[in-house]
Amino acid sequence: MTASIGQSIRRTESIAKVTGRARYAAEQPPAVGQLYAWYVPATIPAGTVEHVELDADSETHTVLWHGNAEKLGDVEDAELHVLQSSTVAYRGQVVAVVMADTLQAARAAAARVQVRYADVRSPDNTLTAQHASLYAPESVNAGFPTDVTVGDPDAALQTAAHVVDNWYSTAPMHNSPMEPHATTAQWSDGVLTVWDSTQAPSGVQGDLATAFGLEPENVRVIAENVGGGFGAKGSTRPNAVLAAMAARATGRTVKLVLPRQALFDLVGYRTPTLNHVRLGADADGMLLAITHDSFQQTSTIFEFCEQTAESSRHIYAAANRRTTHRLATLDVGTPRWMRAPGEAPGMFAVEVAIDELAVATGIDPIELRIRNEPDVDPASGNAFSSRSVVQCLREGAEKFGWDRRDARPGQRREGRTLVGMGVASASYPVLISPSTASARVQQDGTITVSVAATDIGTGARTVLRQIAADALEVDADSVTVELGDSALPTAPGAGGSSGTSSWGWAVTKVCHALKSQGPYEPGNSAEADTTEDVEGQKELARMAFGAQFAEVAVDIDTGEIRVRKMLGVFGIGAVMNPRLARSQLIGGMTFGLGMALMENGVVDHEFGGFANHDFAEYHIPVCADVTDLEAVWVEEVDTELAPMGGKGIGEIGAVGSPAAIDNAIYNATGVRVRDLPITLDKVLRQWR
After folding, report:
1. In sequence order, what are the beta bridge partners of 96?
2. Of 167, 150, 434, 161, the residue nearest 314 (C-alpha)
3. What is the pTM of this model?
4. Bridge partners (DSSP) listed for residue 277
5. How many other C-beta atoms can be found within 10 angstroms of the C-beta atom of residue 364?
6. DSSP strands (E only) in 125-233
7. Are strands 417-429 and 543-555 parallel, antiparallel or unpaired?
8. pLDDT tens column, 217-271
9. Residues with Cβ within 8 Å of residue 120, at least 6 apart in sequence
C-alpha cells in the first residue's frame, strides 16, 4: 500500500463544487413557509436609537429592534448582543431586522424602515499613537503577553554603532471571502438548527446555546461547505444570532445573507496598526537591541488586540528587547482575526527595519539576517523543535537569482522602468488545540471518520482522509470523512493554521484505536480525545519559518508598481498534500501582495465606518496582478509536533511577503515607503 500522506490527491469535494452540487449555508432547499431577512444598519456614527417603525404597506411579517426583540443570554462577545440595547457604537451596527416572504420584499422593506436617533455625535475613529484612550490590555490575541522587556534596550541603543528608528503603519484590511456571511435558521420542538457559513461549528453551537438559553445538544450548527473566511468566520458573527432570533420570533425558517457592504461593517477586519521599531547594531551588524511598540484600535463594546509585536520576540537574537501593545478605544466595529493576525503587520514593520539596517551597515540583507540567527528561542530560552530560517534564505537566494541584485538602489533600469529585488523572513507559531474524533467500520468495509472540523476551502476533507488512511493502513478511497457539523465529535475551529494539526492528531489517535481492535469488522468503532496529549507536549518553541523574495518593476514616469515575480521558501515540516500546500502558500503570498500594494479600508472621519464598501472601491489582487508566484519548501523532519509532523501553512505565506515587496521597491527606486499600502503617489512624492 502506498502512503497517502505526501501525495497530491485531488480534493474530495472537487467534482461537487465545480458542478454546483456542493451546498453552502444559503443554498439549503427552501423550507415550507420560509422567510427571508434583511438587516437595517445604523446610519449614525454614535448615539442611541429611540424608535423604529415601518410603514403599514410593507410586505413584511415582523420587524425586530431593541424595543421588541427577545432578551438574550450573556454571550462573552458583546458584538453578539444584537438588538439588546439602544446604544449605537459605530456606523453600520445592526439596529433592526426585517422578515418577508421574498428576498426582494425584505430588502425593499428594510430600506423603508424609519429609525429615530438621539444623542448623535461625531465619530472618534482616528487611530493615533497619542490617543487619550490608549491602554495596555491584560493580554493580546491567543493569550500572548502584552508587554515583554529583556535587558535595557534604551541604553543599548545609545551605544549602538548603527540605529534604525522609524514608524511603520498598515491600513485597515477586510477579509473579503467569496461567500458572504450567511445563516439559515430553523426551530423545531425547542431544538435550533442553523446552516451557517462559519469556520467553527462547535464554537457557534456554544454561543447560540448561551444566547438562547439552550443546552448545547439542542443546538446543531452545520457548515458543510464554506466559501472562504480568512478569520472573519472564525467566531460566531451577528448574522447567526439574528437569523435564530428571527426564526424564533416568527416560528418560520429564516434565511439571512449579509450583502457585501455589510462585510465591511459587521464581521470584523484587520485593525490598522502603528509600529515604532528601533534596532541597534554594532559595527558588524550584530543586533544589540530591538524595540517594537505597536498601537491599534478596538471598539467601545468588545476588546480585541492583535499580537502585532509577538513575532518580534522570536525572530532575531538580541540581548536587549522590548515589545509592547497599546489599544485605543474608538467608535468603530470590533477588529477580528485576518489571515496571519499580528504576524502579517508586525513582521512587515520589523522586516523593513531590518532592510534599512542592512543599508546602513552595508551588509547584504540575507547575510545580516543570518548573522542574527538565534540558537534558542529569544523569548522563552527554549530550544526550537526545528528552525529552518537560514536554509530557507540560502536556498531561496540561489533559486531566485539573488546574485543578480545590485545593492545600490536605482541601478537596474529597463527602458522607462526601474527593477529591484527584496527579501524578508517569515515566521508563524505552530498552534495545536485539543480535539475529539470518532471512527466506525461500515457494512461495506469502508471506514468513516467523524470530527466537527470545517473545510473552508483549504482541502481539510482531503488531508484528513489521507491522515486517516495512513493511520489505518488502508487506501484513501476506503475512508470517508464527516465534518462541518457540530453534532459530530467536538473540534476547534479552522484558524491559526492549527486545523490540520489539531484535527489530524485526533484522527490519527482514533484510527490507531480502531486498528488495535483487529480486523475491520462492520460495526467496530472507536473514539479519541487529544486533550492530555496536547497538554503533555515538551516545553519547546514550535514555529514555521520562511523566506520571501520579490522582484518589482516601477514605472519611472507614473510610479506604477508591478510585482514581476515572487518566491516563497518555507520550513513547514511534513507536507500532507503538495498540491493543496502550494495552493495555500501562494494564496497567502497573494494576500501579502494585496496588503502591500492595494488593500485599504478608508475610514470615514465625518460619518463613521468605512467609505469604501465594495470591490469597486476596495481593491484586492486579480489575475493580472499575480503573474509569477512560486512556493516551495525545504525538507524538514520535526518529531516534536503532532504525530503527522506538519506545521500550519494557511497563514505563513502572508507573512513577510509585504516587506519583501516594500524592500524590492526601495532597491528599485531608492524610495522607502513605510506606510501600507504602497501606492504610486507615495513613491512619486519622494521621488520628485
Report:
1. 40, 65
2. 150
3. 0.97
4. 166, 292
5. 17
6. 139-140, 144-145, 148-150, 162-170, 182-188, 191-196, 219-222
7. antiparallel
8. 999 999 999 999 999 999 999 999 999 999 999 999 999 999 999 999 999 999 9
9. 44, 45, 46, 47
